[in-house]
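Study this one:
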Amino acid sequence: MAKIKRPKIREILLFLRVDLLCWSLPGIEKSTFKPYSVEPIPFLSFRRQHEQIQAAVEVAIAGVYNRDFFILGPEVRAFEQVYAQTHGSRHCIGVGNGLDALTLALLAAGIGPGDDVIIPAHTYIASWLAVSRVGARLIPVEPDPATYNIDVTRIEAAITPQTRAILPVHLYGQACNMTAINDLAGKHNLTVIEDNAQAHGARWGQQKTGSFGAINATSFYPTKNLGALGDGGAVTTDSDTMDAFVRRHRNYGFEQKDISVERGLNSRLDELQAAVLTVKLRYLDAWNECRRSLAIQYLEMLQGVGDLILPLSDKEAYHVYHLFVIRTAHRDKLKAFLADRGVGTLVHYPIPPHLQQSYQSLNYTRGDFPLTEQMADTVLSLPLWPGLETTQVARVCDAIRAFF
């Protein structure tokens, strides 16, 4: 895939000149004229990616269709093997979705009632739900305000005598500080279980995320850097024992056909999704480089604009920008302003887990996790996807500058 070029200064100036010219034309009223008479910029589009891989995906799907084998067949086995190799793990087990992957990883690690799990306060609710599903107690830790990931300097103070695991989430595509987390885990005899759903291909140092923990989980929800054409997930581990546990547990607890040795789940990555993911995995590194190139353009063009807080990348992290998240005290007004100009944005995430109705029983109130709450009130995700053009990024940045 060709590397996306950054916009030249004259291209940016051209947009501004066109705007000024249009506003100055006689007979055109500002109330009826919009400066950009071009297509809207969606928050996310799969079109360019799908055009690139369409022929290969159609062949892969046809192969499954003609083989008449749809559950736990050769496509799942092939994908599990190549994904494990690509991400530096001995084993990969395909499952039905990311939440099941997290749940199965926790169960395989022996986490259950009576255990405490250190978890980010600022994360998608699925991370919390998995801990709740296995009956363990959540111990939330505030984020690092620079990277948005769990603040490793706060973890040790949160450890209790019942703490059994740390569940770091590589949020928005940036790796957590896995050196510090693994050092703490070793010091306190804790199990590390990574949530790698937003960071396919990310690295801490030279090591891929999803390979640091004793067992790790990921999601292939369609919007992820490596997304299926439906739902899907996977568990990775170097442990033969944990691998065998998850393989049994995803399929009713069967050790062999119709012989259930434990109360398992029905959570299996299907053959069609595995076939598609195998094709898409070949493009992941190139697509991640596209994301990084576009992120650099945003960072350069939005530097010093208004009160924007731009995302920072840890020097040890290879950030794959699942999301490009800015922060501003004027988030809601900026979001509406951009929508009026055809620019799609989303908020990840407007209500933190501790304030969700589903967790009222924990008796958290506003103010318990102020940094998390501040992020929920100020974060805004801008369009970023492979195939987004540099001229479109320039348009988004022009609109943001115009707002401020």
